[in-house]
Amino acid sequence: MAKKTVSTSRKSPASTAKRASATTAKKAKRMNSVSKRVPNVQVKSNKEVFATIERYLAHNLHDRFSFTFSKQTRAKLVAYGPWLATASVVLVSPQLMNLAKNGSLMTISGFFNDIFFNQQSWVILVAILLNILLLVDGLNGLFHKTRRGWTKVYITALITTVYIMSQLVQNLSQPAAPILSLLVALGILFTLYDVRDYYAVK
Phi/psi class of residue 45: alpha, beta or left (left: φ > 0; alpha: ψ in -120 to 50)? Predict the structure, then answer.
C-alpha cells in the first residue's frame, strides 16, 4: 500500500507581515474613532484659574466703571505702596473684619479679649495672621514694584472681602456694619486694580 504524504502548508513571512499590518491598521482606526468621540479639553492649572478669577473681578469691580484715579494720585499710591499696604493689612483689615463681626471697631485690649482669647473668633484670627504672612512675603516685591508683591496684597484684600461677605450673610438682621465694611473692602480692591499696571510682571 502506498503511504499518503501529508503536506503541511507554512505561512510565508510576507503573508504574516501583511496580516499584522492589517491588524495594526484596524487598531489605529479604532483608536482614532474613539479619540474623535472624546472632546479634547485641557485642565486649567491653579495659576490659570487664579488669573481667570482676577480678570472677572477686575472687570466687574473696576474696568466696567469710567471712574479712575488721576495719574498723579496713582503715582503717589505706588510711591507709598509698601507703607499703605502695611497699614491696610495690619490696621485697616482687622478693623473691617471685627466691624463686620461685632459691629464695633477694635481696640488693643479688645483684640485680646474679643479675638485672641475667644475660641469663637479663631477664623478672624487665622485670617489676620494669614494676611500678615502674605504681606511679609510680598513686601520686597512692593518696594521693587513687581507684580508678585501686588498679588500678595491683592490676596489679602480678597481674604478680607470674603470674610466680610460671610459675616454679611450671617448678620442679615443687622447688616449696617457688614455693609459698611464691605464698601471699604471693595474700595481697597478698586484701588489695587487701578494701580495694577504700575507693577511689572517679572
Answer: beta
pTM: 0.74
Decide if 139 contacts 85 (C-beta within 8 A). yes
**Residue 146: strand pairing partners:** 200
Determine the distance from the C-alpha atom of residue 171 to the mean position of all C-alpha atoms in its chain, rounded to a whole number. Answer: 26
Secondary structure (3-state) at 154:
helix
For residue range 57-112, list pLDDT tens digits in order: 888 889 888 889 999 999 999 999 999 999 999 999 999 998 998 888 888 777 77
Task: Let me know if 3 is exposed, middle or buried by CB neighbors in 10 A (0-12, 13-18, 19+).
Answer: exposed
Closest by Cα among 177, 176, 136 to 155: 136
Give me the residue spans of the domains in the chain. Answer: 46-198
